[in-house]
């Protein structure tokens, strides 16, 4: 069968050529776009339906004043919370609309009073409490109201102003940041708690001012470290044996066949015997440490992470350097210029705008407030952020040690103790008494405006 296309009949008219192209193969492109658009619409619909079913709680965590636990205890907490990871199947994604659940580990300063808070789905409450009590038996966990829901304002606002941003990594997330293990003094063997800098910055505000620091984390798959293999191979000079696509395999096969034809067998053997498998022996000490740091990071449990902070205050008290310098400065102690560092993400920074400055600044402030209030509720796969392992997260968010003297951090006043074994127990009655026949008192609900303990100190 022979197909003959006569272009002479359509070359004289561009309209005729466009019509001919559309009726032959050009119709495939708009049909593909239509089907793709319908697929995305269906996916967004079922995901929003799933989101409406989720309910959240806010847990305030208070630890004893004489806390001697190092950040390793919080690292164990993050490792245990990885049990919330849920591998989703095709039916779960495209029929139920399920998406991965996230946690928000927060440190808030309300007028200078500091509180550690965890925001999560109510179904994870038992998991969170078990993980915390396992490491901090004397901790107090209290469900509190959401401190962000009272801020239902828009910008520009006559009374309040806002500064906020999100942080991102300067390099690929397989490169680690400085962790708490490097904050130990080599002489005194004392851990210089990196949380002290952040807590001191949070105490520098007063009434009418608030600072929110949020770490939105989502458990990552266990194979998240596979993307480090090409980087390690490049650093040590090894051949990349990673998974390749079909085009790369065909190209490599053609190159190998061509080299085999143009190269003599003796030359091939001689060249192969002289080439070392890696250049590890010839690396500088800095490069060796870089490879070891990458391997150490990817061998631990990872979380997709988004870090954001916001500073809200009355305009008469607003001083954005309290956040842009004080809060961000506390994160710079985790930066390693040879490995990785945290820096503001210009896409979310409420500043540094040149073109259409006023309109874009108003839009970014409003969006930042909405993001802080919603946490990870509307995040979809692909928006969960870069990956930090449990050691890095525990370095950034952990309960202060007893050496930290920040006075306005909410802590428990005393340790809980078990009752003595010799305490006499009340004997069980086997018959009814006149007191048992009295009608039970009616239960009275507490007032709605009752202050919640543990949030404001």
TrEMBL record:
Keywords, alphabetical: Membrane, Transmembrane, Transmembrane helix
Chain segments carrying region Disordered: 415-457
InterPro entries given in the database record: DUF8128
Domain DUF8128: 97-409
Residue spans crossing the bilayer: 17-42
Superkingdom of this protein's organism: Bacteria
Protein name: DUF8128 domain-containing protein
């Amino acid at each position: 069968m022979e197909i003959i296309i006569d272009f002479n009949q359509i070359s004289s008219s561009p309209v005729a050529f466009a019509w001919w192209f559309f009726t032959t193969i050009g119709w495939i492109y708009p049909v593909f776009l239509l089907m793709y658009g319908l697929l995305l619409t269906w996916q967004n619909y079922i995901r929003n339906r799933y989101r409406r079913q989720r309910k959240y709680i806010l847990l305030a965590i208070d630890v004893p004043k004489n806390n001697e636990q190092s950040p390793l205890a919080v690292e164990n907490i993050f490792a245990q919370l990885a049990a919330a990871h849920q591998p989703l199947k095709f039916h779960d994604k495209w029929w139920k609309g399920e998406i991965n659940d996230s946690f928000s580990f927060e440190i808030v300063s309300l007028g200078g009073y500091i509180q550690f808070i965890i925001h999560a789905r109510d179904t994870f409450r038992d998991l969170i409490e078990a993980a915390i009590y396992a490491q901090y038996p004397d901790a107090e966990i209290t469900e509190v109201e959401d401190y962000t829901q009272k801020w239902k304002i828009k910008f520009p606002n006559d009374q309040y102003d806002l500064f906020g941003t999100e942080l991102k990594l300067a390099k690929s997330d397989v490169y680690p940041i400085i962790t708490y293990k490097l904050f130990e003094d080599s002489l005194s063997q004392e851990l210089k708690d990196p949380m002290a800098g952040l807590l001191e910055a949070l105490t520098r505000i007063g009434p009418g001012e608030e600072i929110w620091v949020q770490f939105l984390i989502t458990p990552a798959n266990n194979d998240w470290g596979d993307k480090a293999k090409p980087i390690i191979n490049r650093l040590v000079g090894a051949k990349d044996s990673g998974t390749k696509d079909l085009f790369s395999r065909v190209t490599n096969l053609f190159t190998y066949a061509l080299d085999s034809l143009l190269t003599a067998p003796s030359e091939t053997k001689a060249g192969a015997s002289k080439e070392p498998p890696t250049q590890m022996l010839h690396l500088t000490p800095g490069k060796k440490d870089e490879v070891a740091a990458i391997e150490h990071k990817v061998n631990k449990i990872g979380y997709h992470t988004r870090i954001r902070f916001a500073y809200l205050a009355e305009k008469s008290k607003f001083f954005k350097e309290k956040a842009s310098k004080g809060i961000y400065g506390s994160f710079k102690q985790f930066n390693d210029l040879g490995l990785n560092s945290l820096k503001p993400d210009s896409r979310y920074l409420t500043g540094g705008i040149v073109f259409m400055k006023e309109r874009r600044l108003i839009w970014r402030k409003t969006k930042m407030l909405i993001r802080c209030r919603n946490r990870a509720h509307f995040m979809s796969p692909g928006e969960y952020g870069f990956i930090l392992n449990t050691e890095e997260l525990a370095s950034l968010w952990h309960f202060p040690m007893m050496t930290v003297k920040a006075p306005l951090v909410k802590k428990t006043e005393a340790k809980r103790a078990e009752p003595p074994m010799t305490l006499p127990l009340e004997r069980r009655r086997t018959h009814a008494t006149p007191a048992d026949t009295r009608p039970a008192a009616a239960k009275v609900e507490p007032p709605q405006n009752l202050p919640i303990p543990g949030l404001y100190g």
